Structure formats: structure tokens, C-alpha cells
Amino acid sequence: MRIIGVMSGTSLDGIDAALVEFDHAGTPQLLGFHHSAYPGELLTTLRTINADTPLGHVLALDAELSTHYAQAVTAVCEQTHTPPDQVDAIGLHGQTVLHAPRAKPAVTCQLGDPSRLAQQTGICVVADFRQRDLAGGGEGAPLAPLFHAALFAAQSPRAVVNLGGIANVSVLSDRGEVVCGFDCGPANTLLDGWIQRHHHQAFDAAGAWAAGGQVDDALLERLQSDAFFARRPPKSTGTEYFNAAWLDAQLTGTEAPADVQATLAALSAWAIAQALSAVSAGVTDLIVTGGGAHNTDLIGRIAAALPDVRIRDSAAEGLPAEAIEAIGFAWLARATLRGQALDLTKITGAKAPAILGGIYPA
Ligand SMILES: Nc1ncnc2c1ncn2[C@@H]1O[C@H](COP(=O)(O)OP(=O)(O)OP(=O)(O)O)[C@@H](O)[C@H]1O
Ligand SMILES: [Mg+2]
After folding, report:
1. Beta strands of 72-189 (E only): which ranges?
2. Angle between helices 189-199 and 257-279 (to 10 degrees)
3. pLDDT tens across 59-68, in order?
4. How many helices (H) and strands (E) would you count in the chain?
5. Closest Cα to atom 17 of ligand 1
6. pLDDT of residue 259
7. Residue in 337, 335, 357, 323 with CA at minimum distance from that of residue 79
8. Contact call for residues 189 and 296 (beta carbons, < 8 A)
9. Residues of the chain where predicted confidence (pLDDT) is lower than 70
10. Which atom from ligand 1 is nearest to the alpha carbon of 93?
């Protein structure tokens, strides 16, 4: 089976498309990967969309995003000289604009109309993965632990952490089963927001700005005292919670900007370390995925916080860090097409295994 996984995460850095070939055992081989940044105007719209945005604008954005996804699919097909009719499906995550699993009723919303994407590409689309989990009593996130287990199973207990906008951790047993998986807090989203505000850069390349600052211990303690960190899993979060307003509420206004950046990096590292120690699974190895794997400063802080754990980038396992989530959505789409129920009971708190996703035929 050949499937294109399409991921666009909370960092709003753009669209990742991964063309993946699965063998009969379900082992994925990455045939091609394409990243496209969101154009400036779309980015502004995505950054400002909220619960007060008129419904007409939301639906227009839903339609517009599908066109960008179609372009990303075309780009990865062209790059790999793969005609679309040789692709079995697209596994579409969509762009999260709202994730409120604790609201009554619980809601999550990913935009990027799958019907239009199927129409535009002529390829079957599998989408709406989070909705079914939410309907089944789960948090709707994270879904990554399922494919982390499939991609990174090994003989020793290990953990995988995805450093996207939010950090999510998956703990795997020595038999490669998921012990638990949950969101542990912000990874890049606060770092990105702070450098955007002060230096108009999309992100802190290699964490160089944070590395030049001093951690403000008092600020760090105030940030760490947020109840989310102490909550037991299952838990998930998003940028509607960890955002500029959340940070601003804890600032005195006297902090040097570089020191705040250093403190935010320290917070991300601490959140991961404390999450792993809270579930205390005797983890010996940690595999790092997501764009934050390229943040040398952040990785150094995680390593310092987990001195007994071997840390390596997923590229060392043959899969580039920035492609894992997109590969994962190809993996999830394959499971849906095969009618395979996935067990998220230990991850999202879903009541029972379920076939996730809706199928939008070509
Ligand atoms: N060279 C780099 N140095 C520092 N940070 C980087 C670098 N490259 C990428 N990043 C960080 O990675 C982020 C993008 O990561 P990724 O695409 O995995 O996150 P995402 O789109 O939010 O996905 P998720 O759904 O997992 O949250 C960027 O916003 C940036 O913060
Ligand atoms: Mg991304």
C-alpha cells in the first residue's frame, strides 16, 4: 500500500507530506517527503482564528486549506515521480483550530475539507481521526503513541517524545507495546511565539537565542506550578491553553527577553522529564521526533534533565524527525482502510478500541 500522510501541526509552520510504502507486515518505507510553508496571509488567518470568527470565514478557510493540502500531495507525487493513481490513499490530519477535550460536550476541530481534497487529487482521503476517539470517550489526542509503537518498537523499554508545538510522550514496553502516551506540555509553541514577538523570526534556530539567556528560576517555578503539569494522564492540550496570554500572566515585565526564552526552553525540557518520571517506566532510551529535534539547546536541556537516559534523534532509527508525524497519519489511514480497530484506552482514555477516521473515496 502506498499512502501519503499529510500533517500540519500546532506550530503552524506549514504542511508536511510523506509518501510511504507499507509492506505486508505494515513496515513503512519513506519514499518521499515534502514540506511547504503556509503563505503569509493564510498564516495570519490561522493565528487569529478563534471561537468568535464568523462561520462563513471558518468554512472558507476549510475550503482554502484543502487546496494547499492538494498542492502538497501533488508536490510529493512529482518529487517521487509517482502518478496519483498509484497512491492508495491520503491520511489527512487537517489543521487544528480548536481542541477542547474537557469542554461539555468535548470538541476538537481540524480544518481542511477532505471531500475537496479527494475531488482535487483523485485520491481516496482518510480523515477525522480525532473525532471518533473523542466520540468514544477519549481526549482525541495524542494519537502518535500508536504509530510510535509501530515505528520504534525495540527490546528495551523506551520512550518517544514528539517535539511539535506541544510535546507528547509515548512510553513503550520491552515488547513494543504502548504503556502510556500523553501530552506533557508546550514544546515549541511558546518558544516560537516569544521569538516572533521580539525578533520577528518564525523560530529560534538551534535554540541559539535561548542558549544565550539565563533561566529565571522564579519565573520557571511560576510556570511549572500550572495544574496541567501535575495532572495524571490521560491528558492532552493545545495552543488555546499554552499561548502568549498564558505566559504573559506570569511575567513581571522586568525580565530580559533572552532570559524568558531560556526559561521557556527549560520549561519544555522539565515538562518532558517530569512526565517521564511521573510514569516511571524504567525508560532507558528516548527517541526524539518533530521539528524540535533540531533545537540543539532544547535537546541539551532534555539530556541534562534525564541524565540516565540515552537520547537520540529518530533519524538514527532511519526515519527523519520532521517526517514522523506525517508518516504516522499514513499509518493511521492504512489501519482505517484495513478496518483495524485501534486501542487508545491507555492513551486517550477512550472506552474501547475503535476504527478511527472517515473514508472519503476518490
Ligand atoms: N532548526 C531548528 N531549530 C530550532 N527549532 C526548530 C528547527 N526546525 C524546526 N524547529 C521547530 O520545530 C517546529 C515545527 O515542528 P513540527 O512541524 O514537528 O511541529 P508541529 O507542526 O506543531 O506538529 P505537532 O502536531 O507535532 O505539534 C518549528 O515551529 C520550530 O519551533
Ligand atoms: Mg509542522
Report:
1. 89-100, 107-111, 125-127, 158-163, 166-172, 178-186
2. 180
3. 999 999 999 9
4. 13, 12
5. 291
6. 98
7. 323
8. no
9. 280-281
10. 25
348 and 214 both lie in a single domain: no
pLDDT computed for residue 281 by the predictor: 63
Q: How many CB atoms lie within 10 A of CB 153?
A: 15
Say which amino acid occupies 296. Answer: T
Share of the chain above pLDDT 90, in %: 94
Is residue 148 a part of any domain in this protein?
no
Q: Quote the pLDDT of residue 159.
A: 95
Give 285's contacts (C-beta < 8 A, 6+ positions apart).
154, 156, 157, 158, 159, 309, 310, 311, 312
Whole-number pLDDT of residue 153: 82
Q: What local confidence, expressed as pLDDT, does residue 20 receive?
A: 98
Q: Which domain holds residue 314?
A: 153-321
CA dist., res. 116 & res. 124, Å (int): 11
Ligand 2 centroid to Cα of residue 254, in Å, is 32
Atom of ligand 1 nearest to the CA of 191: 31
Measured by CA distance, the residue closest to atom 20 of ligand 1 is 9
Which residues surround the ion ligand 2 when the cut-off is CB under 5 Å?
9, 11, 13
Asked whether 140 and 108 are in contact (CB, 8 A), the reply is yes
pLDDT digits (tens, 9 = 90+) for 221-276: 999 999 999 999 999 999 999 999 999 999 999 999 999 999 999 999 999 999 99
What pLDDT does 296 receive?
98
- 126 lies in some domain: yes
d(CA 318, CA 322): 12
The CATH number of whichever domain residue 92 belongs to comes to: 3.30.420.40
| Cell numbers that stand for 169 in this block | 510522550
- State how many domains the chain has: 2
Residues 231 and 103 both lie in one domain:
no
Q: Which atom of ligand 1 is nearest to the CA of 290?
A: 18
Residues 6 or more apart in contact with residue 351 via CB below 8 angstroms: 136, 137, 138, 345
How much is the pTM? Answer: 0.95
Within 6 A (CB) of ligand 1 lie 9-11, 13, 162, 164-166, 188, 192, 203-207, 290-292, 294-295, 325
Ligand 2 centroid to Cα of residue 92, in Å, is 13
In the 8-state DSSP scheme, what is residue 128?
-
Q: What is the pLDDT of residue 175?
A: 87
